[in-house]
Amino acid sequence: MRQDEYQACDALELAARVADGELAPEELLETALARMEACNPQLNAIVIPMVGLYWLVSLIPPSYPLRTRQETMERKKCRMVLIPPQ
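^ that's the sequence the OP posted. Answer follows.
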């Protein structure tokens, strides 16, 4: 996955791509780690990068079903409706 594609997606879109089989979880993790390495020198947000742990956690299958792209897109269309107190 290219960095510009990665940056254009939110977490739901990335999860949908993985659920659809369009993107391998390993490829997503590699892209995220590359982005982390590129940005962290300026941000200094990650003090102790635990890359080995990230890879280990990525091997654990989720205990819940991932949404498909269509389910994710339908969820994004939902709007919160605020109901005033009575």
